[in-house]
Amino acid sequence: MHETTIEELYTYIGKNVAKYRKEKKMSQLDLSLAMGYKSVSVVSSGEVCYKGKHFNLEQILKISQILNIDMCLLFQKTK
């Protein structure tokens, strides 16, 4: 991961959030509400890095707690 750009890292995180959210059978709205948001925009934008939007560390911590996964899983390189 030494040659990974920050944009690539945000992409890995977004894809991993989507993957683990779907494995837990949660919708984007379910995850957004559990995180304390009233719409899906934060989750939907963060999952696909829409217009440069990405998850911050606080959101990543909340997501890992809500999905009951190790936060490190969200940083793993996706294929």
Rg is: 12 Å
Total helix count? 4
Mean pLDDT: 94
Q: Low-confidence stretches at least 5 residues in length (pLDDT < 50)?
A: none
Rough outline: globular
Our measurement of the CA-to-CA distance between the termini, rounded to an integer number of angstroms, reads 13 Å
Main sheet? none
Q: Roughly how much helix do the residues carry, as a percent range?
A: 55-70%
Amount of beta strand: under 5%
- The arrangement of helices and strands along the chain is HHHH
Q: Would you count the extended β strands for me?
A: 0
Estimated structural class = mainly alpha
Explain the overall architecture.
The mean pLDDT is 94. Helix 2 packs across helix 3 (41-48). The protein has four helices and no strands. With 79 residues, it is mainly α.
List keywords for this structure.
single chain, 79 residues, mainly alpha, globular
What's this, in brief?
With 79 residues, the protein is mainly α. The chain is built from 4 helices and no strands. α2 (28-35) crosses α3.
List the helices and strands and how they pair.
Layout lengths: L5 H18 L4 H8 L5 H8 L8 H11 L12
Helix pairs in contact: 2-3
